[in-house]
Amino acid sequence: MGHKKHHHKEWITVDTLDKIQERRKKKAATNTSRTRAEKVKSRAEYTEVNKQVKRSFKTGKRKYVEDLAMTAEKAARKGNMRQFYDTTKKLSGNHRKPERPVKSKEGKVITNIEEQRNRWVEHFKKLLNRPVSLNPPNIEAAPTDLPINVGPPTIEEI
Question: According to the lineage, what is the superkingdom (predicted)?
Answer without folding.
Answer: Eukaryota
